[in-house]
Amino acid sequence: xxxxxxxxxxxxxxxASLSTYVLVDFWAPWCGPCKVIGPILxxxxxxxxxxxxxVKIDSDQEQELSQAFGIRSIxxxxxxxxxxxxxxxxxxxxxxxxxxxxDKHIPAGDPLPADTGAEEVPEPLDSADVPxxxxxxxxxxxxxxxxxxxRYDYVKLLIGTGHLTxxxxxxxxxxxxxxxPLRFEALSQWLNAIEFVTTDPRGRWPLEKFDExxxxxxxxxxxxxxxxxxxxVHNEWTAxxxxxxxxxxxxxxxxxxxxxxxLVAILELLTPPKPKxxxxxxxxxxxxxxxAGKATVEQDEQAKLVSTYRRKLSMMxx
Length: 318
Description:
By secondary structure, the chain is α/β, with parallel strands linked by helices. It folds into two domains: 2-105, 3-Layer(aba) Sandwich (Glutaredoxin); 129-270, Serine Threonine Protein Phosphatase 5, Tetratricopeptide repeat. 53% of the residues lie in helices and 9% in strands. The protein is built from 13 helices and five strands. The protein has a five-stranded mixed sheet with strand order 1-3-2-4-5, sandwiched between helices. Strand 4 (76-81) and strand 5 form a beta hairpin. Helix 8 (182-199) packs across helix 12 and helix 11 packs parallel to helix 13 (301-317). The radius of gyration is 21 Å and the shape is globular.
């Protein structure tokens, strides 16, 4: 259980919900029903062992967050996934009803393994260190195949160093999960882009040829999408996202929402490592909601880029 404020909301709720379910409990110290349901929720978080995270928000102290969620009475609980509310309820439900609520959304099965961080490959890596790092990670993953944090770093390094076949094989167990964790979906999209560029004739086109066809037909989504993949492979992430947004703006459902899924994957790939909660997170809440009276602080350029494009995508989808 984590106590959440405006300062760490984006980290502990929005960012965390990209990889697991997050149950947000709006409460207050004077609320009798809150004192009843709180211990039950904490007990369930322990029993579910990583399948969801519980966070608590004092609605009296964090009125901006309460207003952002439209909280009218407490306790109110909101289940978050992929940065968005999935479901919620009001009042102190009995334990059986709470289990029904959780089981309706949270996949059954073994607990999701927690990321330790300690076993991840150290950064930065010199090029000479890469083969040794890959060997160490492969050995560690063989010994502990349930360590998804290690698997993610291993696959990302394999893709980044051109070991595409090995990356696909190492990623397969993660892609078999239901639902597929967002970070592995992101790696899969990146790998697909690289495979497209290496196997499709359009992967060798100069950008000018794409632009020529797009100028002749703004709704040539096939060409726009192919161009975005080429840009991804060349690490032109901003240009790739702009091209994907152009498709989404004109037809958000095109090709099974492939542009939206690809853009979400890019944002996941670009998202900096999760920081420690602290005052440096002040000023922002879910989806870029500004907190009145909180001074925003200078963010890392990449974090600002991700935040900007998340807002652009959200605006187009709403």
